[in-house]
Amino acid sequence: MKTILSLSAFIIFISSVTFAQSTIPNEYRGSFSEIARGVLDGNNIETNFRNHGEMSRWGDIPQLGDGLTIQIDGIGYLMAARVTGERAKWSQYYGDGVSDTTLNPVIINYRDSGKKISPYTGELWGWLPLNGFHNPDRKDPVRNAQAPIPAISDDPTSWPAVWPDRLNQTDAGWQGSWNGFQGKGRVNGDQETFYVMDDHSDREYSFGVETEGPHSELGVYHPSASDSTMGGLGLQTEVRTIQFNDLIGNDMLFTHYRTTNISEKNLSETWAAFLVDFGLNFDPDDSYFEYNNSKDYMLLYGGSNTNAGVAFILLEHSIHESGAFKFDNDNDGIKDESKFNEPGQYLEGKAAIDDFLNNNYNMNRFNEVYIDLEDFPAYRNERWWTGDEDMDWIAYDDFNQNGMQDGDEPIEHDLGRDGLGPAHENYPGPDEGENDGIPTQGEPNFGERDMLEAENRGISLLDINTRPFYESGKNLRDDTWLFDRMMFASENIGNYENGPVTIDYEPFMMFGVGPFELKQNESSTIIMAVVFADDSTELYKKIEQAIAIYESDYGQTGFLTPTEKELELPTQVSLSQNYPNPFNPSTTIQFSLNKSKNVTLSVFDVTGRLVSEVISRQQYSAGIHQISFDGSSLSSGLYLYRLEVGQQVITKKLTLIK
After folding, report:
1. Strand order through the sheet with 574-575
2. Does the domain made of 574-656 have the CATH classification 2.60.40.1930?
3. In the list 14, 90, 171, 253, which could disulfide-bond 316, CB 3.0-4.6 Å?
4. What are the tens digits of pLDDT across the range 76-112?
5. Within the chain, which residue ranges are assigned CATH 2.60.40.1930?
6. What is the pTM of this model?
7. What is the tens place of the pLDDT at every residue in 329-371?
8. CB-based contacts of 2: which residues, under 8 Å, 6+ apart?
9. What is the three-class DSSP state of 644?
10. What do you get for the CA distance between the two ends of the chain, in Å?
């Protein structure tokens, strides 16, 4: 088990609603037989997780914070909606003269306390993982026994033969490649996990599927008229967790929840929320809970044995807004942002761009929130597609500013839907949208891969009580009780705005967002980050760092906001002396980047002959990176290692002694 040095944690919670049909064929459905357990261990944070929206289950090692004073005993993801329950049309079952009702289905699969079981078949009602997104025949490398786990980037034996959500790509299914957030075969950070779940098994309000007639006395709800086997609300959720193991991000964990309404009905009122079991770590005599509504964070801190605390921050909650109304929910000066939009209008020249900005943006507010306009890549290049609302997508690096792509000017963001360009390892060749001069979904700094392209709202429901209260009886398995508690949390959120309150033993929290509209084929994206720190001072520092990492598209773009500028990243490109030196047979080479760039790292002998190309034109994010170099195949002697970043070249010496 890894040693975890940090003692505090916070969760960043980011949500957006976008127009995005599911790309997964209908034959892929949630199934109990597909449930798998895995371990996240891409950096200092280790925890167990299951591919139905649950993380850090109590009693299952490792948990978030194992070995620390602070320990999280469980995190669960749930969604709910308010819908019409049919009864009048089923009078033969409900009686003559009955009226329709309002139903409040809650989708959950959280430990035993939040696991709904069908009284008719004994099957589970709730989130279940889809088939096709991990290898069910994977074998444990030690025991040589069948041991499936959710797909994880650093274990190719856990991957499926093809990825069902990538079957519509030029290279259908991305066979043999990781299904990365940044693109085909690309791992965002040092470790990613990915799975998909749906709620179709939740047949609590179905009719005639598991028993004759209605399943519930409260009413009937069919999310799909053409598919009677689809239960729940007709939701499908893609879940992706990302970990960084550099000096800044090694105590952080980011998780994306992208939920699509694949039913045949619009959901006019929808909620998304998290359940958090803090565990037994806090002393009720001197521990406190604090909520800051202006910055959307919550703190739980104190205790007789530690000064540590845990903070949860809602960074973004964004809903789609029609361009006809020109809303600016996040008050950043950019109106009607969307993560799933078209390229928009193409403009050339700063005069044309200025005219569009002045007519469509609140430039006074924009200038308060963002960096100088001249620092935005598209504005600086004087070529902008307005669908890239934050002006950070450019097709190529126009070094000489002649308006044409010359031979030595590499593609920057115009990489096509697979996110791969000629500079990337295992480049398969051009795909849809590549090098066409137009931003395409799947390319960096545009659409769903551009974190700042979203309208945002804050936390709208918050409740802190105790684990025994929430898990008493059937509370978490009773839709009515749980939905009523969500409404209570929404109505009473103001109770936490007047300073710290003393907490009870075994604190348990629910927080979330809603109501928001989720129409048919629309998607809602929530991003949650967990960050540990040694003390409260370090915690606040890491909060700003995590926000900056997110806003810079995980280090893939230049910094656009003052928050990002405050991130303690290198100010220039540098190459450190390898360590150890002399070495045998391996050594570590460290280099720093002040922004995301393509990198080449090569080793030469003293005659100038290339003996190893350690990195070949691969894109690295801003930050400090460490690469291991193995000299087993080389003879003893003096060698040169050279770092190439754009036009900059740095060379140092290393010595191999066998």
Report:
1. 574-575, 586-593, 623-630
2. yes
3. 14
4. 999 999 999 999 999 999 999 999 999 999 999 999 9
5. 574-656
6. 0.83
7. 777 888 877 787 789 999 999 999 999 999 999 999 888 888 7
8. 41, 44, 46
9. strand
10. 33
Q: Of all helices (H) and strands (E), which one includes residue 642? A: strand 637-645
Query: CA-CA distance, 247 to 225, in Å (whole number)?
Result: 52
Structure tokens at 411: 């593609």
* Backbone dihedral angles phi then psi of residue 75, each to the nearest 5 degrees: -135, 130
CA distance 540 to 289: 16
Pairing of strands 8-19, 309-317: parallel
Cα 498 from Cα 196, distance rounded (Å): 40
Band of pLDDT at residue 436, cut at 50, 70 and 90: very high
CA distance 468 to 472: 5
Q: Is the peptide bond before 105 cis (omega within 30 degrees of 0)?
A: no
pLDDT digits (tens, 9 = 90+) for 267-288: 999 999 999 998 756 555 556 7
pLDDT at 21: 63
User: Do 220 and 19 contact (CB within 8 A), yes or no?
Assistant: no
Torsion angle of alpha carbons 318, 320, 322, 323, nearest 10°?
A: 60
Q: What is the pLDDT of residues 34-68, one digit of tens each?
A: 999 999 998 888 889 999 999 998 888 777 665 54
Beta-carbon neighbour count of residue 269 at 10 Å?
A: 14
What pLDDT does residue 292 have?
76
Tokens for 300?
């739980």
C-alpha closest to that of 241 among 368, 154, 132:
154
Q: Give the integer Cα–Cα distance in Å for 362 and 326.
A: 10
